[in-house]
Input
Amino acid sequence: MLTPTTSISAEERARTLTQALPYIQRFHGKIIVIKYGGNAMTEDALKASFARDVVLMKAVGMHPVVVHGGGPQIGKVLEKLGKKSEFIQGMRVTDRETMDVVEMVLGGLVNKEIVSMIDQHGGKAVGLTGKDGGLIRARKMMLDSQDKKSAEKIDIGYVGEVQGIDPRIVSMLENSAVIPVIAPIGMGDDGETYNINADVVAGKLAITLKAEKLVLLTNTSGVLDKEGGVLASLNVKQVNALIADGTISGGMLPKVNYALDAVLSGVKSAHIIDGRVQHAVLLEVFTDEGVGTLIKS
Output
């Protein structure tokens, strides 16, 4: 016989499932690109909850595509090798030795750990880098000087930007049981390998795949107002006003710009969510309240 406590718990579970049903129906067969990084990929409980989230999404008929970062992991390996990390304008200076480490860590260690984690929680995943099947074509990135009077460009090595995406290798997996897990490494026309910002890759991939949603996991609770409250839902006009008045600034600004680019290029919605919350992806996709900021046109 159920005690009052277990009865309430069962009712809450049933209510949660009922609330999720319309979202499951609405997003069945839809592509959802998820940028996975930050605390969500370094803390064990969060790693496990993320894996269960994407496995469940695939099980109910959605098509999650995971793009991952790995900056902290790269930094740790470089440190062990006695190589100091250097950043300019938030970008890692990447000489050839550092690029070799980046490719080993992102395309090997981190990527395979995520694939294994998804497999352990009942899913099937395949690891890719942007070099596989010509998925990501890259070109060398040159930074603008912070001296506005100078036209000089800053060379930060093997750091790239997306020149183009060939989605065929990902599209082949779309209607299978497999979840693609992609490391943000691209190949240039010059034959060189380039490290690319994972948020950028996720956004461009969402556009190319005509995704329903772009989800960016962060280490903040979402886009905040000037009092520190979470702005749950924003349209493009509101986002532009918040950028203009300085409410959106600092490290959040590039993420918001990537989200804006996706939405203005045909992705139905972009979500900047709190990856420090267990099951953040499910809470954002399957519930009314969500756990971050929704951006729509």
In short: The radius of gyration is 20 Å. Residues 65 and 197 are 16 Å apart (CA to CA). The chain has a mean pLDDT of 91.
